[in-house]
Amino acid sequence: MSEPGSLIRTLAGRQAARNFHSFVIGEIGLGIVSGRMKVGTILPNDAEMIDAYGVSRTVLREALKTLEAKGLVEARPKVGTRVLPRSRWNLFDRQVLAWMNDAGPEPAFLHAFFDVRRTLELQTAELAARHRTADQLRQLFYWLGQRQTVATMPEPFAQAEFELHRTLGEASANPLLRAANALCEFAVVRALVPRLARGDTEFAAEKQAAYATLLGAVERQAPPAAAAAMAEILAIDEACALGP
């Protein structure tokens, strides 16, 4: 579940195709992020987990190695596999963000997240206005149109909005901003969740004018105007995701 778009699929309750390896990763990962598996505790031994998850030792070991790479656990000889604190988690990892979303992130985390998003997205907008190509501009306007076309369909709408932000990242010509697209996807999802909860049936109108202003600024290569339009978009998302 680490490919772009996989987080958005959870809006419709659809999970990515799963094998035994991804099943074990998902069960343990969500257990840790949700707090069911407490920080500092030692996971059950191999035999117990093999029995609990119905997988082979090889599958279990590979799953634990993946979780260790994400910073969720640490394996030590003669001690076992210990659950690590959040300060060690890779919070830029799409799968970790998906577990955070499923667990229901607390307000303090969302505030911290939007602080980081603001810094990255404003810089992305400015750089995209400077460096975008004609082809990237065409893609941006395509996704703006798609965003309005599928405005009543939550998952396609979220995908269109994410693709617009991902294309801005590509247009920035900055490899680090381009690599941060998991944060953009998480932001799109978190801004949409409250709208779905309150029964909204149309999702594009509130920000459509701001997006049009943003792309107009990117088109005429006006970085300050692009950043200002992006700031308006982010303010709307933050107000929706964080509440009053």
Which class best fits the helix and strand makeup? mainly alpha
Within CATH, the superfamily of the largest domain carries the name GntR ligand-binding domain-like
Oligomer type: single chain
Number of domains: 2
* Sheet of most strands: 2 strands, antiparallel
One letter per element, helices H and strands E, the order comes to HHHEEHHHHHHHH
* CATH architect. name of the largest domain: Up-down Bundle
CATH class of the largest domain: Mainly Alpha
Task: Report the CATH topology name of the largest domain.
Answer: Four Helix Bundle (Hemerythrin (Met), subunit A)
Spatial order of the strands in the main sheet? 1-2
- Give average pLDDT, whole number: 94
Q: How much helix, percentage-wise, in residues?
A: 55-70%
Please provide the count of β strands: 2
Assign an overall shape. elongated
Low-confidence stretches: none
Count of helix runs: 11
- Strand fraction equals under 5%
End-to-end separation in angstroms reads: 32 Å
Over all CA atoms, what is the radius of gyration? 20 Å
What do these coordinates show?
The chain is mainly α. It has 2 domains: 81 residues, Arc Repressor Mutant, subunit A (Orthogonal Bundle), CATH 1.10.10; 137 residues, Four Helix Bundle (Hemerythrin (Met), subunit A) (Up-down Bundle), CATH 1.20.120. The protein is built from 11 helices and 2 strands, in the order H-H-H-E-E-H-H-H-H-H-H-H-H. It has a two-stranded antiparallel sheet with strand order 1-2. A hairpin with a 3-residue loop joins strand 1 and strand 2. The two termini are 32 Å apart. The model has no long low-confidence stretch (mean pLDDT 94).
